[in-house]
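Case study 2.
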Amino acid sequence: MGAVHKYDLTSDVTHLIVGDTDTPKYKFVAKERPDVKCMQPDWVGALRQLWVDDVEADFQALESQYRLPTLHNLRICMTGFEDPSYRKKLEDDINNHGGEYRGNLTKDVTHLIAKEPSGAKHRYAIAWNVKIVAVEWLAQSLERGMILDETLYSLSLPPTERGRNAWIRRAVSTSSLGKRSLDGDAALNVPRKLRRIASAKLNSQNVGLWTDIVGGDFKAPKLEQDQWLEQMGPHNPKSVDGSSVAVKSEVSSTENSSLHSESSAVTLNPAIPSCPEPFADSVPKTGIFAGRRFCLHGFNEKKADHGRH
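Prediction:
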């Protein structure tokens, strides 16, 4: 019917179908997962019947109808409370939230709510392994909507310490069935943000590369010390073939001066022909090589002529 069944209680689980409340999964959800809804097993059958009948379902109404009652399958007895009106209120709370109130303590009673750790019911509850809890357990379980850990409501604890850290109180988004909660999507925002950052960086690199091609600020890479430079003296540098080279310390890419200006004049080996100075009107004003100067060397006349054009 479009849902996903999981054996493990993972972070993306939205509903827990409960057959028994005395299980590790139920206790974990009661304490740590207020976003998970505990449902009766009949909820799945009701959904399937609507799906088979091709009837449009009101999922929120079905969730409310088949939500697991707070005190599901519990049989609760009380002792030590003398005020009749208060006892009646406790009885109504138990019966109205899925539990069953028992006036007499029997072996099939699951919980004994005691005011003091004394009396005949208290002694028999210990002997029969009935869970004994303070009245705060009932009030806070009804507030949570699930059965909380009974050990945190022992009568041996001071009233101010009972129920401490029994469950995590946090806001829960009210999303309908089939939609992921906003809390579940928070983790997905991180990789999305990383993808946006990576895309922006790649885009800036592409822009920089295109700027180098079409004509922008250009910085020549710093040359490492190599065999060529090692053979050039500090005061009168020589090329490999012995010819003198006058090197300009810094050349700006924005200058439009010729390669043959005095500051960058180069005396080459006479055996190597120099490049002719281009005519001013032959230099293209636009295009990807606008403002650039090239010298062609080592090509035959046909290829050199093609390169110049």
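DSSP finds nine helices and six strands in the chain.
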